[in-house]
Description:
- Helix content is about 55%, strand content about 0%.
- With about 60 residues, it is mainly α.
Amino acid sequence: xxxxxxxxxxxxxxxxxxxxxxxxxxxxxxxxxxxxxxxxxxxxxxxxxxxxxxxxxxxx
Length: 60
């Protein structure tokens, strides 16, 4: 999931289908948790990544 978030933030135009699937599924299951050193929850980073891709997260 962290790799999919990073890809979405860095190369949204060339995001692999597998990475997009990970983000959409993570949004659908309301992922929880945090990554040490990140400035927001994992769920928050999924939302930012989806918005960066022009998609609206389900929980926004």
